[in-house]
Design goal:
mainly alpha, 146 residues, globular
């Protein structure tokens, strides 16, 4: 039994040394980027919820003067008619196509220029709408702008 007990002391000693050594690593006050955020801000209890954060970045659509129902209808029509431009996009991103186009029209931007801007706004992951598709998307924005 003496040999077993003697074997445990060095293993226990090595385990304690390893814990102390590992505890010393990364405790130099420099954050370790590989482990992500640390401290109280890293817990989900204190992180802002996604909805709270979005409210600070973008005012609700209704406060921008656009009818949320009409925007939702535009988004639904866009998704149905142009899935190649909609896949992987959130509703706000798609709604922005209409909102920015309506803003252009409100600022007396020429219709042809608005349609050209729609080509850029609707483009997604390298897929670019044809001029005909851009004109159709422009037509879909009409209900939002009125």
């Amino acid at each position: 039994m003496g040999a077993v007990g003697a074997g445990r002391v060095p293993i226990t000693g090595l385990a304690v040394a390893a814990v102390l050594l590992l505890g010393a690593c990364g405790s130099d006050g420099v954050p370790d980027d590989r482990t992500g955020p640390q401290g109280p801000a890293a817990t989900t209890d204190v992180m802002p919820q996604h909805d709270e954060h979005d409210d600070h970045e973008h005012p609700p659509r209704a406060t921008q003067g656009y009818d949320p129902q009409r925007l939702a209808e535009f988004v639904a029509a866009f998704r149905a008619q142009y899935p190649q431009f909609a896949v992987g996009r959130d509703d706000d991103d798609i709604a922005d196509i209409a909102i920015e186009s309506c803003d252009d029209l409100a600022n007396n931007v020429d219709e042809r220029v608005v349609t050209a801007h729609i080509v850029d706004r609707a483009e997604h992951d390298g897929v670019v709408p044809t001029p005909e598709q851009a004109r159709t998307i422009h037509g879909l924005t009409g209900a939002v702008c009125s």
